[in-house]
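Comment thread on ticket #2218

A.B. wrote:
> Attaching the input chain for the structure job we discussed in standup.
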Amino acid sequence: MNEQNFDYLKDSIKYLGFGEQLDEALNKKMAEGQPEFSITHRTEINRKPFEAALHFRKSDSTDLYFLNGYSASLQRSNGEKMEQSFYLNNGKGVTAKEAYNLLEGRSVYKELTKKSGEKYHAWLQVDFSAKDKRGNYEMKQYHDNYGFDLPEAVSGLAVKELTDPEKEKALYRSLERGNVHAVTIEKDGAVHKMFLEANPQFKAVTLYNADFKRVQKEDVGKYMAEAPSKQEGESTEQSN
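C.D. wrote:
> Ran it. Output below, let me know if you need it in another format.
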């Protein structure tokens, strides 16, 4: 077995957020020398069962193995099981937590590579209404030129974290990973613990109250900054 190859794959698995618990299984499978194999990761995220089968393939001309992608599944709160395959480029791509967020229906901002090798950035969102010829859900992409500006959308709200550069940076990075991020909104002397979610399709951010209920359109004004960069309907997205 190629130890250098093992170390590289082990680091790739860790980078993708699958931890170190798969190292022993990876070592064993590589030692067996099969042309291809899979190892399974099982965990719970936010008390929801999440599973991923990582797929490895051996080179036709060398003893090197490559991590080509993984198949993930998530059991949602309503019992529905969502499944999707994620393809990797040199062992990098959508992480385990980002896959969880995508399967929950949220959007993730990633650096992607065209077939020509040119890199670009785009927001990804699973389209659960359409599948490709392999049975995988289609993946929507909202490129930078689509017009969604995350900082501008967030600035429409009176978010306290925007006054601290480090917390502001952490907020944007969390939203880019597809997380629902807790924020503090201060308006007219009142303090509100709330949640934000990026919604690039509508060039907006979605606002939830402390009970994780989406804020209704008629109530958004309570949480707007004094001098919003956009009109109310453009900077946030709520349910009708």
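A.B. wrote:
> Thanks. Noting for the ticket: Residues 228-233 have pLDDT under 50 and may be disordered.
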